[in-house]
Amino acid sequence: MSSSDSKLPLRDIPGDYGLPFFGAIKDRFDFHYNQGTDGFFRSRMQSYQSTVYRANVPPGPFNAPKSKAIVLVDAVSFPILFDNSKVDKTNYFDGTFMPSTDFTGGYRLCPFLDTSEPKHATLKELFLSTLANLHNRFIPLFLSSMSELFTHLEHELSDKGQAYFNTLSDDMAFDFLFRLFCEKSPSETSLRSDGPTILNKWVFFQLAPLISLGLKHVPNFIEDLVLHTFPLPFFPLKSDYKKIFDVFYKSMGSILDEAEKLGLKRDEACHNFIFLAGFNSYGGMKVFFPALIRWVGAAGESLHRRLTDEIRTAVKEEGGVTFSALNRMSLTKSVVYETLRIDPPVPFQTAKAREDVIIHSHDSSFLIKKDEIIFGYQPLATKDPKIFENPEEFIADRFVGDKEELIKYVYWSNGKESDDPTVDDKQCPGKDLVVLLGRLMLVEFFLRYDTFEIEFGKLLLGSKVTFKSVTKATS
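Below the sequence we write its predicted structure tokens.
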């Protein structure tokens, strides 16, 4: 604790949970229907004049045994969620609930294990070592997958006058991840082109308690009963998941050999890699890639020209798309960080206090008692106006030069962007890969095109992006 922190006044945590059971239901309806996710957290922050407060967080009854939480929405208090000496993350990954292990082969996978559980370090070591061993394949595989995306994009624009990016992006992301871990194209297996469709359903069934469909002709209470009140069953997905599992199991021989050397069962390791590839990576890219194109597209031609100049100059002088060329592209990297800041692919972080702990916001201290649930809403924490100037604006060069030190306040990966994942923490093992792929997407795009126009809107998860035109590179 710094001396300035120790001088902050100790304040009671404002807010309340309402009536038993009914308070949680009311807050759930506010979250999904009456206020929306962002409005739910902002309104309480403003009402209590505090960035630390009490509220029921979804899904509540009967999907989650507990809904009472202490909510954090500022950049200073948020990192308590990353301090594994003070918080326990047993079964906390999606929020305050945990989907049935039926979705994951009967195993509690690495994301649901606390760092105190021995198997967590073993699995995290396997993930980190596998990604390290595959790092030379990242760039060539992704460029190949991107080339196919551009072919389909131009074909759709030519045929239809527009191209829906999300489906193209999903197909590209799955193709890349499958070829990375399985060393073959999904088209060479029984999956053919079904992988993204299967994973979309699998992810949806697990995240349904946090999703609103927004169907105009379905009353809210019916959707709430179906999606948010009880867990969706696994059996409709059983055959699809077996199809995914069988293909990964047959194709990941060398990786599963390494897992056995670490004392893991082959099938358990395979289920963990399906989650790493299919939920963490594919699910994250499903949100992140459209967000990246949405914000860059909305920024317009002036940003496009700056990116084009930086990217083409670096690639020409370094003789290709190499790590050294990428490292010269400070604006390109800043754009990726800014997208992750303003539109983080994972909005929620959850943990339970291991002990009584004092946390700090900008202006107060608060006591969180042992076993209380701590719930962080990341899109407000990374738009903290006391950290970021004009936090609601997309500022492309926000992290260029000396300002790059601000990445320590970008928390999208369940950790600070300035930190590296280790076996002893819960930070995403593929954190650096995601940033690299975002940079590569921009590089390949602006090597091929000068500018582009899009339309965008909201989806269940993230942004919906439709290309209206692209202007091919003139030089």
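DSSP finds 16 helices and ten strands in the chain.
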